[in-house]
Amino acid sequence: MARLSSLVDLAVFVMLLVLVAIAAGLVGSLTGLGGGVVVIPLLVILFGASVPIAIGTGFVTILATSSATGAAYVRDRLSDLRIGMFLEIATVPGALIGATATVFLTHANLESALLIALGVVLLAIIPGSLARRHIELPPPLPSDARAQRLGLTGEYHDNALGQDVPYQAAETSPALGVMFGAGVVSGMFGIGGGVFKVLALERFLNLPMKVATATSNFMIGVTAAAGAGVMLAAGYVNPVVAAPVAVGTAFGAYLGSRLLPGLQNRTVRLLFLPVIAALAIEVILRGFGLP
Amino acid sequence: MTIPEPREATAPPSVKPLPPEAYVRMTLVLRVGLGLSLAILIGSLGAYIMTHPGATSGSVLSANPILGYLSFPGLGSGLASGSVEAFLTLGLVVLVATPLVRVLSGFYYFRQGGERTMTAITLAVLGMLLFGLLVIGPWVR
Cβ of A239 and B70 within 8 Å? Predict the structure, then answer.
């Protein structure tokens, strides 16, 4: 009887994780912030997971959702593989440093500090999701010498506009700086950091909105692999937690991508962003030991 | 929405665009990698629940069941003996390896196109990813 009870306990636990992850994937997709932003605080608050295990699960979530949604972007050649690969030279070392810092903070019994920092980062990225330029095709800017040398240009066919759209990367140095920072944040907290990446791709490289979004998605997967590698090898990715969360978040993100075209993007974001803000505040309060 | 006049964006003559097959193969890598890893993870998670009747949500959260399988020898012997925990680890390894294979494909195509700088950048990214997984992770554990 006790065995049956624990079997039911574990099965219910897994099913609850899937359901919460579906909701997280949906909200993450509709807000454009990614499922990890919702699922990591929920794992700590609702399920009592330790902070590094929640962060390790965040990486698995990112890998599953970016591979699920990224395949279509690559197939349609919206992801610029050349620009994405070039910028990974900054995000990957950032992610390695961030993930290593998380492990050291955990070993030093500074999980509370990690929790507070996670809450602050969550609050900080919320305005970023509303600060996008909403300019489909930005006016062309001259490329810097590095972008010209590496041929950081491209072209995609825009179905909505019915035309081929050429583009060229503008300022690579500030973009590399922002990407390094995005890598550190991603590696440290197990979130995609897409807000920072899209910001750098749009503001500094002057890429069209669709290319920036698709290239960011491509990069998120590679950056997450850097952080996930460290956390997995360090023993902070628990598959019994991560597997149901990855499946649920990927499904929720898929649902979100189907729903999004029929919804007013900004309205949806304004509706759900307070939920993420509330989670961030709860995480900060827990970090300070408050109920 | 702002739609400016059509403009030109031309790469220098030494830079060739990636061939269409590069995009097709990378799409395939993503789909196969994700499908394979999720299939392994879901299957082995079901097997884990059935074969560990004493495990509870509390015990699972307090102790990571794959800690004994995080080295290559440990994973290899676990897979050979049919350990469910080893298969859970394998599912995670395939998921993490999928972007690495994507970077490896990029390396192959840049090298084929004779682009030395992009080949070196891609190789450096791949090297850093492997360094994180094989050196930093075990070191900080």
Answer: no
User: What angle do the packed helices A111-130 and A51-75 form, to 10 degrees?
Assistant: 30
Residues of A in contact with B134 (CB under 8 A): 233
Which ipTM did the prediction report?
0.87
The 8-class DSSP code of residue A33 comes to S
Q: What span, in angstroms and rounded, lies between the C-alpha atoms of A118 and A287?
A: 9
d(CA A14, CA A19): 9
Start-to-end CA distance of chain B, whole Å, equals 50
Predicted local confidence at residue B1, as pLDDT: 46
Phi first, then psi, for residue A165 (nearest 5°) are -115, 110
The pLDDT of residue B6 is above 50: no
Distances from the Cα of A89 to the Cα of A176, A183, B77, B117, angstroms: 8, 10, 35, 12
Parallel/antiparallel/unpaired status of strands A163-168 and A153-158: antiparallel
CA proximity to B31, closest of B111, B116, B101 = B101
For residue B60, the chain A residue with the least C-alpha distance is A240
- Is the distance from CB of A150 to CB of A82 less than 8 angstroms? yes
Tell me the pLDDT tens digit for each residue of B113-128: 888 999 999 999 999 9
pLDDT tens-place string over residues A196-206 = 888 889 889 99
How far from the centroid of its chain's Cα atoms is residue B80's Cα?
22
Residues A221, B52: C-beta atoms closer than 8 Å: no
How high is the mean pLDDT of chain A?
A: 86
Give the N- to C-terminal CA distance of chain A in Å, as an integer: 35
Min Cα distance A227 → chain B (Å) is 8
**Nearest of A282, A250, A240 to residue A24 by alpha carbon:** A250
Nearest-by-Cβ selection for A229 from B106, B118, B129: B129
What's residue A189's pLDDT? 94
Instruction: Give the C-alpha separation, B136 to A181, whole Å.
Output: 20
* Residues in CB range of A61: below 8 A, 6 or more apart: A21, A24, A25, A34, A35, A36, A39, A190, A242, A245, A246, A249
Tokens representing A84 are 């994405």
- Predicted TM-score (pTM) of the model is 0.89
